Amino acid sequence: MAQNQASTGLETPGRGLFAEISKNLRACMQCGTCTGSCGSASKMDYTPRQVWRMVQAGMKEEIFKSRTFWLCSSCYYCTLRCPRGLPLTDTMAALKRVATAEGYFSDRKSPVFYKAFLDNVRKYGRVRETEMMTRYFLAVKNPAVPLSFVPLGLKLMAKGKMDVRISGFGGSGKLDRLYRKVMELEAAK
Amino acid sequence: MKYFYYPGCSLEHSAKEYDVSARALMRLLGHELIEVDDWTCCGASAADTTSRLLSIVLPARNLALAQKSGVRADMLVPCSSCYLNLRRADDLISRDGLTADLTNRVLKEEGLSYAGGIRVRHLLDVLANDIGAEAIAAGLKQSLSGLSVAPYYGCQALRPFSDFDDPEQPHSMDALIGAAGASVFDWSMAAKCCGAGLMTTKKELCLELVADILGAAKGADCIATVCPMCQMNLEISQKKISRMRGKALEIAIVYLPQLLGYSLGLPRDGLRLDLNLALTGSFKDLLADMSKQVAVPGR
Fold first, then answer.
1. CATH of the domain spanning B2-122, picked from 1.10.10.10, 1.20.1050.140, 2.40.50.140, 3.40.190.10
2. ipTM value of the model?
């Protein structure tokens, strides 16, 4: 098993998190093995190696304007191969968390989708795709987005492979208590 | 043997055939699956983008439910993303006191707790190591002889937790495919990422990654998967990708338990091949031809 996953589930949410990320990357020696191993690198505006350097240099604005970390597909190749054993994939996720918490969105689609997903899970416990996607489409406010999913929706529908249940807005949720406690504990830190 | 079973959200709907075939195969091989009662979503790749703690609490809730049942068994997970999340939650809670404490303070809201210690296993791990190729060979009813299968592992079954296979050059499917009578297609994309986690938000990138995988599988009769995310991502855009790359890249995509189940003679309703989104005509013909031949001589 790789030893270089994040060592803990704890972190300081909000502003302190960027400092923590920066500390985690102190040992990066800019070898570029991460970039060479990244399937998404060709679509990124900065390569992973460049982003680590930018984190070290505290170039927060530039990092969060870039789309690099939103393109991380969590394949863990960089983490596996990093000669310094740094938790690189987890760091990409941490950058997503900072961006979400502080409202830095170069592209609204990703944070809006993740929010729709987690709200859906909070409400029902399990994902109900149709309602989740409907909420996502309403929130993303771009008619081209739902249209691009019509072919897939039809294919799944034809096979009876879609949960088509949709209920009203509001109401209490299956996992409310857990979500509320997570927020409470994170706010207390 | 007895296993806890965590199907995960995809297997309820979009990957029904994976759920059906995995359960039927395990039953046929004499193993019992105990579905985690009242299980909920593992957080997929969404929770980690919002809250680290939530990304541990969501999978931990399911481990806590299993522990509460009093049964002692490994947790069998067919989806690679669920597997990673449950596996990581157990790992962090088992070796980090602060994470365990914080997670349990949240779980207490539902009267639950998790002490760590349930072994989280990917379905492929159980098939390759607990069941093994010998059991498949011994139960063979319909050899898949003549079928060339490209084994596709994707990412999260192999990384970051390399519990049961090499994370870059995996081979755990080889012997199983061989035992079913098929041949293993030798290719370089078995452990590469298909970008399924970005299917909704970064489609353009996803199409490129899938195109490379489909292109490399040229010459195989089908790709075998062990994850509902990979499966759907490889299935849904084949026509578009073929147009994009200017060549025919359509190929059948099947779940490994469907293939193994077929070779062991599982009936149609245990395979649900009718639900797959990308079964090519030539693949169906191959299966039809096989079933016309006498099964396995001498058994």
1. 1.20.1050.140
2. 0.93
